[in-house]
Design goal:
The complex is a heterodimer of chains A (525) and B (88). Chain A has 525 residues and is an alpha+beta fold. Chain A has a domain at 5-143: Ribbon (Umud Fragment, subunit A), CATH 2.10.109.10. Chain A contains 20 helices and 15 strands. Chain A has helices at residues 5-13, 110-121, 123-144, 148-181, 194-203, 207-221, 224-257, 266-270, 294-303, 358-374, 380-392, 399-408, 412-426, 433-445, 451-462, 464-472, 476-482, 485-488, 493-507, 509-524; strands at residues 15-19, 35-39, 50-54, 60-68, 72-76, 84-87, 91-100, 103-106, 262-264, 285-289, 307-311, 315-320, 324-329, 345-347, 350-355. In chain A, strands 1, 2, 3, 4, 5, 6, 7 and 8 form an eight-stranded antiparallel sheet that branches. In chain A, helix 4 (148-181) packs across helix 5 and helix 10 runs antiparallel to helix 11. The longest helix of chain A has 34 residues, at 148-181. Chain A is globular and about 75 Å long. With 88 residues, chain B is α+β, with helices and mostly antiparallel strands. Chain B has one domain. A three-stranded antiparallel sheet of chain B has the order 1-2-3. In chain B, helix 3 (52-62) packs across helix 4. Chain B is globular and about 40 Å long. The chains are: A alpha+beta (525), B alpha+beta (88). At the A-B interface, strand 1, strand 2 and strand 7 of A face strand 1 and strand 2 of B.
């Protein structure tokens, strides 16, 4: 959901206005009723300022600053009860004026200033009152709305859902191997509707990837709206692919001409392996550059009509509507130093085009998959890709070097698990319970995972106490991601656990997880 | 012409901005940017229905400007608002 509209308005005019939406800034603003006016900030925001920022999912949010740290603001809506940690560069505007119930107000007014400070001051009281309200609500529901049948039905539903997901994922996996590896065409299980197949494939970004095998069946058996939708998905993905490949060619030629070293990452490098690369839909062209070359890269992209959409520590996002998105990476990973370009070989014909060798590539993508896996699920697409890659380069991969590389990152167990899931899905291996659990987790997370999935994953497979322990003492790989000093001095691990615990007490993020867990426990009842 | 109900106009810096609120926001999700003259015209027809001639007289009374230019401005203003679905 990339919408730079508000950012470009602010850049061009310096101010932006809108009506209000949502309940998170009550009692100040009521949804739809009021008008807010923000201007592009010319200095740091202060406590009590109301900030307009872009959330991680690309939504625009207008909430109040309640604290200022070095690199981030602590932000909370007047009617919400959790703190948002917002990096300063995601804040694009600050509230300066508003029209409430037909009356104009500015943020300089005494009455508004009194309101902001007072409302924030009484937060502890509001918090407690809200808790009381919630508890009373629960008691009311427990007393007056008890329904024992609901619980057993819920459990039965869960089993049925697990079976359904298994059936869907096995079918889609079989279609992928049919299309890309010459396996025979699978029969669609009777209990699966084409709508369900589409919905599942779409959630995995595989809708157009499987269409070629089943187009005739869908057109014959499914509702015409579904077939039309599927046709559209394929057409769009094809158009995207054509646009992206030609753009990629153009960009690589230009980088070479300007003598800028580059290393394509992730997505785009995948395409070559799919039988029909158009099947591999992906959103961005990820390329890593030497930080020193970034100004020239910026100049080049802007000269081609790209607009810098937003930036963060790790990469800058450039957009050329409607399809093109280039993520220019200036840091190799979130934490830690970036390796020099000498680490990678170049294509024989082009000394600027760097490529990872097999072991580097598999480790990098395993790390990327692991990050998403821990976050709630990395998707069948990634697993299939790694499977295809391994198959294609089977004889060339140095397994020992790969094993060492994975172990260095603490990923060898994860990688083995992924391989087993891939063998179950794409090579007909019999799955163990562990593999089935992982497969279910991956299938239900969607391509980029979800928070609730992470909670269930942790709790189901490990039991509550062990889950809490694994969050307080997470696996070495995750500690390394968070504290890169451990790569050089692993002996500091126990110390970093203490650091992590202490900092978590002060930034309150654990609160959200514990609440998430409580909800999970209630859902199971 | 008259501005439909449900619009709010505010002065910001050296310009004016208007948005739709309440139920009108379901129909109109844009943002209107105006200069002082535009805002002057807007405010005239916020509450009252006025014809182009009436607006012309008001402009000529308030501003020292050539009648032909004022007429052209009002025509353009009306066309833009009508296209945006803002006036009735």
């Amino acid at each position: 959901m990339k919408d730079g509209l508000i950012e470009s308005e602010l850049r061009e005019h310096g101010v932006y206005a809108s009506n209000t939406f949502g309940t998170s800034m009550r009692p100040l603003f009521k949804t739809h009723r009021d008008m807010i006016i923000v201007k592009a900030p010319d200095s740091e925001l202060r406590k009590y300022d109301v900030a307009l920022y872009v959330s991680e999912r690309g939504k625009y949010i207008l909430h109040r600053v309640i604290g200022v740290k070095d690199n981030e603001y602590l932000i909370r809506g007047d009617n919400t009860y959790s703190v948002e940690h917002v990096p300063k560069d995601r804040v694009i505007g600050v509230l300066v004026k508003f029209n409430r119930k037909g009356k104009t107000h500015t943020t300089d007014e005494l009455s508004y200033k009194i309101y902001s400070r007072l409302w924030h001051f009484i937060y502890p009281v509001r918090f407690v009152l809200r808790k009381i309200r919630l508890v009373l609500g629960k008691i009311y529901r427990a007393v007056f709305k008890r329904n024992a049948k609901k619980t057993t039905a819920a459990v039965g539903d869960k089993e049925a859902q697990v079976r359904l997901v298994r059936s869907l994922s096995e079918y889609v996996a079989a279609l992928l191997t049919h299309i890309n590896c010459g396996a025979p065409k699978p029969e669609k299980p009777k209990e699966l509707s084409w709508d369900a197949v589409f919905a599942f494939a779409h959630s995995q970004s595989l809708a157009s990837g499987i269409y070629s095998a089943i187009e005739a069946d869908v057109k014959r058996e499914a509702a015409p709206e579904l077939a039309a939708r599927w046709d559209r998905a394929r057409a769009t993905d094809l158009a995207k692919h054509i646009k992206q490949s030609s753009e990629f060619k153009r960009l690589t030629a230009l980088f070479t001409e300007k003598e800028i070293k580059f290393l394509p990452l992730k997505g785009f490098t995948y395409k070559a392996l799919w039988k029909n690369p158009a099947h591999r839909t992906m959103s961005d062209l990820d390329i890593y550059f030497d930080p020193e070359d970034m100004p020239r890269v910026d100049e080049l992209l802007l000269g081609l009509g790209y607009v810098q959409e937003h930036s963060c520590d790790v990469h800058l996002s450039y957009e050329k509507k409607p399809f093109l998105n280039v993520e220019a990476h200036r840091k190799f990973e979130e934490n830690g130093e970036s390796p020099s370009f000498d680490t990678w070989q170049t294509k024989p014909e082009n000394p600027y085009w760097h490529i990872m060798n097999h072991e580097q590539f598999l480790t990098f993508n395993a790390l990327h998959a692991y990050k998403h896996y821990e976050g709630g699920g990395c998707g069948m697409r990634v697993i299939f890709y790694l499977y295809l890659y391994k198959k294609a380069y089977e004889n060339e991969i140095d397994r020992e070097a790969l094993q060492n590389s994975l172990e260095k990152e603490g990923l060898s167990d994860f990688f083995t698990l992924i391989e087993k899931v891939a063998d179950y899905w794409f090579a007909g291996a019999e799955p163990t319970d562990e593999v089935l659990g992982a497969a279910y987790y991956i299938s239900t997370g969607g391509t980029y995972g979800s928070f609730e999935n992470r909670i269930s994953h942790g709790v189901e497979s490990k039991g509550r106490v062990r889950y809490i322990l694994s969050r307080v003492f997470p696996p070495y790989a995750r500690m390394k991601l968070r504290y890169p000093v451990l790569k050089k001095l692993p002996i500091l691990l126990p110390f970093m656990y203490i650091v992590r615990f202490v900092t978590s007490v002060f930034n309150g993020r654990n609160g959200k997880e514990l609440r998430g867990m409580k909800k999970h426990k209630e859902n199971k009842k | 012409m008259k501005i439909k109900s449900g619009f709010v106009i505010e002065e910001v810096g050296d310009g004016y901005l208007a948005v739709a609120v309440g139920d009108r926001a379901d129909e109109f999700s844009g943002l209107v940017r105006m200069n002082a003259t535009g805002a002057f015209l807007w405010k005239l027809i916020e509450e009252r229905d006025m014809s182009k001639d009436e607006l012309l007289s008001a402009v000529l009374r308030e501003y020292d400007v050539d009648e032909a230019i004022a007429k052209a401005d009002i025509d353009r203003f009306e066309a833009q608002l009508r296209e945006g679905g803002i006036i009735e």
